[in-house]
Write a structure and sequence with these properties.
The chain is mainly alpha-helical. The protein folds into two domains: 62 residues, no CATH class; 217 residues, no CATH class. The protein is built from ten helices and no strands. One of its GO terms (biological process) is CAAX-box protein maturation. This is CAAX prenyl protease 2/Lysostaphin resistance protein A-like domain-containing protein.
């Protein structure tokens, strides 16, 4: 399904779409909030819609059921939930590590990274951003990165070439580069193991939903994780030992998850096809 889609066209159209949207809304004198919403709509709705519609209209035999099905999903749900928790723990402790490295030399930068982000818009803006974060972004980004980019790059290089390069691209677009890069590897392996984009989409949605929850619910109310969460510059040193422990455990668990998902997976460079879905007994 994704093999015929040109990834370079998707990149080009996305860049042009975003630039055109910015120029139009700057010319009409739109405020920053309206412009940001318009850019998000262009990035997550308009460009992907026309890109995928173009290829689907060229080939009426394309069917979403080839890559999107509820069949065989249920046995994976507990494992995916665990993967999300490990991914979040790893990302949080990597954030602490970055702060610990930055603070001695650039305390102002560490303080800036710890400053809570205030949303500039009203309730409508917040609802739209929540919809984008939890629904639109996971669906579109999985179709783009795990669908188009992974498939196309793997066909030109190798399975691991596709996984690593598409995950690097995914990481570059996110502030948490290391965490997002490993997140992309796990999402790629989920797709390759099952041939079903619904699993990485669910993985992505759950991760983003928990991230959104932390925005609207003060982190100190999560008593189970407050002991290692860094909220202030003082926490960088005070919670160092806790973060080191969580970082080691989450790193080992992440490596184990990748190993389990990789085990038995054959390189698709020659066949250019996704592996057959695993049976229920083979899920991690």
């Amino acid at each position: 399904m994704f093999a015929e889609m040109k990834s370079r066209y998707l990149i080009l159209f996305t860049i042009l779409g975003v630039i055109a949207t910015l120029i139009i809304f700057m010319l009409i004198g739109a405020d920053p909030v309206t412009t940001e919403i318009a850019v998000q709509i262009a990035f997550y709705i308009v460009v992907p819609y026309f890109f995928f519609h173009y290829y689907w209209s060229k080939n009426p035999d394309f069917s979403l059921s080839e890559v999107l099905t509820t069949k065989g999903v249920k046995p994976w749900l507990p494992g995916i939930t665990g993967m999300v928790l490990v991914s979040i723990a790893f990302s949080l402790t990597m954030f602490w590590l970055q702060l610990a490295i930055l603070y001695p030399a650039f305390p102002w930068l560490a303080e800036f990274l710890l400053t809570p982000v205030e949303t500039p818009g009203g309730v409508g803006y917040e609802y739209f951003m929540l919809l984008t974060l939890v629904i639109l972004a996971p669906i579109v980004e999985e179709f783009v990165f795990r669908g188009v980019f992974l498939t196309r790059i793997a066909a030109k290089t190798s399975m691991w070439g596709g996984i690593l390069i598409s995950s690097l691209m995914f990481g570059v677009l996110h502030l948490d580069f290391v965490g997002s890069f490993l997140f992309g590897i796990i999402a790629s392996l989920l797709y390759l193991r099952t041939g079903n984009l619904l699993l990485p989409i669910f993985f992505h949605m759950l991760n983003n939903a928990l991230a959104a929850l932390s925005i609207y619910v003060p982190i100190h109310e999560f008593f189970a994780i407050d002991w290692f969460i860094v909220n202030t510059a003082a926490d960088i040193e005070a919670k160092a030992f806790a973060n080191i422990i969580v970082l080691i455990i989450s790193t080992l668990l992440t490596a184990w998850i990748i190993y389990r998902l990789t085990k038995g997976l054959k390189d698709t460079k020659q066949k250019h096809e996704i592996a057959e879905p695993l049976s229920q007994s083979e899920t991690p």
